[in-house]
Amino acid sequence: MFSMAESTTNKSPITIAIVDNDLITLKTLQSLINQTTNIHVTWISQSGRSALTQCLEDDNSPDVLLLDMGLSDIPGTQVCRRIRRNSSEPKILAITSYPIELYAADIADSGAQGIIEKNDYLNLYYAIRQIKENNIISPVSFRNYFETSKTAHQRLEMTPKDGFESLTYTEIQVLNMLSGGIDPKNIAKQLSITPTTVRTHMMHIRFKLKSFTTAQALVKWTREYNGGLVCMK
C-alpha cells in the first residue's frame, strides 16, 4: 500500500521524460501518458547515459523523470544519484517490473522522490502529479526513506562520491562486458581500444571499488547493478 499525500496545488502542465530498457514499455508509457490532460512526454530513451546528457548537459530536463531500475548500460540507481548530486531537478520517479520493496531503499538513498511498479497504470498519473508537487510516493514501510528533490540534492551535494559514482562510462562498459563473460581481448576489440587500455581500466575499477581482484569488483558491481537481487539467489 502506498502513502500518498494529497495536494491542493492547481493542476499545471507537467513535462515528462521516460528512460526504460524496453522499447515496447517506453512506447506504451509514452502513449498512455500523452493521453492524459496536462501531462506531456517530451523525450524517451533506452540509455542511462543519454538521460544523464539530456538532464545535465543539454538543458532538456523535464519536470519529472520516469527512471527504470533495469537499464542495460548504467544502473538506474547510479543515473539517479548522478542527476541528483548535480541538481534538484528533475524530480525522479523510479519504475520497476520487480517488487518495489527490492529497490525502494537504494533508490531513495540515490535521491529519487518515489518508486512505483511500471505496470501500475491506475496510480501512475497520480504519482507523477504528486511528485511534481513536491510530495513523495512509496510503500508505507519506506515512507521515511524518501526525500524531496531539494533535500536529496543538498544531502548528496555534501556527501563524498562512492566508488560506483566515480566510475567513468568506459569503465562501466568494461564492467558490463566482463559481467557478461566477455574476455579482455574481445572487450578491446568491441570498444576499439588496446588490451593494455582495458587492463588499465580494470586497474582503475579495482581501485575505485576497493577490490583486490577483478572478481571481487565484479561481485560488487553485480550487486549494485541488480539492487540487491543477486543476494536473494
UniProtKB/TrEMBL annotation:
- Positions of post-translational 4-aspartylphosphate modification: D68
Domain Response regulatory, residue spans: 15-133
In its UniProt entry, what is this protein called? Response regulator
Q: Which PANTHER family match?
A: HTH-TYPE TRANSCRIPTIONAL REGULATOR YHJB-RELATED, NARL SUBFAMILY
What GO biological process terms are annotated to this protein in UniProt?
A: phosphorelay signal transduction system; regulation of DNA-templated transcription
Q: Which InterPro entries match?
A: CheY-like_superfamily, EvgA-like, Sig_transdc_resp-reg_C-effctor, Sig_transdc_resp-reg_receiver, Tscrpt_reg_LuxR_C
SUPFAM superfamilies attached here?
C-terminal effector domain of the bipartite response regulators, CheY-like
Tell me the organism: Bifidobacterium aerophilum
The record's annotation in Gene3D superfamilies points to:
3.40.50.2300
**Which top-rank group of organisms is this from?**
Bacteria
